[in-house]
Amino acid sequence: MKYFLPIFCTLLLFCIGCNRGPYYSANKSYKKQTKALGKELRRNPSTQTMATATAWVGTTNFNLRKPNIVVIHHTAQNSCDQTLKTFTTIRTQVSAHYVICKDGIVHHMLNDYLRAWHGGVGKWGNMSDINSSSIGIEIDNNGFETFTEPQINSLLILLDSLKKKYVIPTANFIGHADMAPGRKVDPNINFPWKNLADKGFGLWWTDTTGISIPENFNAMQAFRIIGYDIKDSSAVIQTFKRKYLQQEVSKDLTPEDRKVLFTLYKLFL
Ligand SMILES: [Zn+2]
Question: Is-catalytic flag, 40?
Answer without folding.
Answer: no
